[in-house]
Design brief:
phosphate transport (chains A, B); homodimer; PhoU_dom (chains A, B); Phosphate-specific transport system accessory protein PhoU (chains A, B); Methane Monooxygenase Hydroxylase, Chain G, domain 1; 237 residues; PhoU (chains A, B)
């Protein structure tokens, strides 16, 4: 019984990795689509987001079924609840990649990105893809050092975002308002995508180190005492 | 025992309503702050978001403790898991209200919003606040008709968002790039805020009607059969 149970827990982990790989690929392809004004590629990214949504839906169903049937406590409960949150991060990342692709489609046959910003947007897209690849690796390896690296990568994303804004605010900006609006939204999409990748990695850190778990246990302790019932499992949650 | 349990479930519901009220107030005050260039008000909105984060943290701790101690199944399990998701929506809404306030602070003593857009932004802010007030009411009353109203309100938000874009794209736009960028981001914040309010209401609908639950049960049935174990509780999840 416990074996089937842990197999199912593992399969939830695998679904998270699948989602991370799909959205990492999506942001890379969406970036190519918007820089090259490639309508076909944009359409394929937009269509492929359904697969991410399906994976999330399936993962949630399995996580909730697991809670109902196995009623995990302590670490296992934390893993299931955290997996639900990670899947929400990844689903949202997929939406953001789709937003980039939709902007590519909206401006086709033009590119939404002026040539003097191609390098910056390319770098943001590549960094976003790398961040998600690392997040997937963190899910698999539970490597805390790698997880902490993602925060530094996110600083690099913030720097690129500021570069983008400097271009926009430069008096010599000559691409008009529509492009300024597009570039503003694009910057926001990449920044939020990166935030979600960092969030996934942070949740793994929380699972491994139980960092939040201690505070959490303090919070719930009075309620537990008030009901005169001990918490099942070793670490309270 | 069951009474204390349901009391705790109720208190989670109350915490959600508290969060919704706080973020509804926050978006209203942030809108005033940005239109009036009121630095003090902006600062108070920025500081108040901590309270929302604390409420979420506390709610999550209690929800997870409840899962561990009471191991709910069926409807009760669905309520707890859905509450976790709603709290994430509300926490994020709080962030978005804070973003509006931060933009007010950044542009002080100027207003980030040019006069000819004051009415549109005011309307977006008011609508956002109303949407969140309705979401809070839906949590309390579980009124499905009211929940469905939110989607119509969201259509009105989309319309306002398009109005904003029409202003931006108008050849007569005379407020420069910086303001165009500010207005683009503002529009996005209000739109996302509204999305989260709608999402909260939709999750209540799901709880009451169990709409997703049926699909969900179909998904997990083979796995359950494979392990030769029935799902506890009436509606499977």
């Amino acid at each position: 019984m416990r074996d089937a149970y842990h197999e199912e827990l593992d399969s939830i982990g695998e679904a998270l990795v699948d989602m991370a790989r799909l959205v990492g690929s999506a942001i890379g392809r969406a970036t190519t689509a918007i820089l090259d004004a490639d309508l076909k590629l944009a359409e394929s990214v937009i269509a492929a987001d359904q697969k991410v949504d399906d994976l999330q839906h399936d993962l949630e169903a399995r996580a909730i079924a697991l809670l109902a049937r196995q009623q995990p406590v302590a670490t296992d409960l934390r893993i299931v609840v955290t997996s639900l949150r990670m899947s929400a991060d990844l689903e949202r990342s997929g939406d953001l990649a789709q937003h980039v692709a939709k902007l590519a489609r909206l401006r086709f046959p033009d590119s939404a990105v002026p040539y003097d910003l191609h390098a910056t947007i390319l770098e943001m897209g590549q960094l976003a893809q790398r961040l998600m690849a690392k997040a997937a690796e963190v899910i698999v390896t539970k490597d805390i050092d790698l997880a902490l690296q993602l925060e530094q990568d996110d600083d690099a994303m913030d720097l690129l975002h500021r570069t983008l804004f400097q271009h926009l605010m430069d008096d010599r900006w000559k691409h008009g308002i529509e492009t300024a609006v597009d570039v503003t939204l694009l910057g926001r999409y990449y920044e939020r995508f990166a935030d979600h990748a960092v969030s996934v990695a942070k949740r793994v850190v929380y699972l491994v180190t139980g960092e939040h778990a201690d505070e959490l246990q303090q919070d719930v302790q009075p309620a537990i005492k008030g009901e005169g019932q001990a918490v099942a499992g070793g670490d309270g949650v």
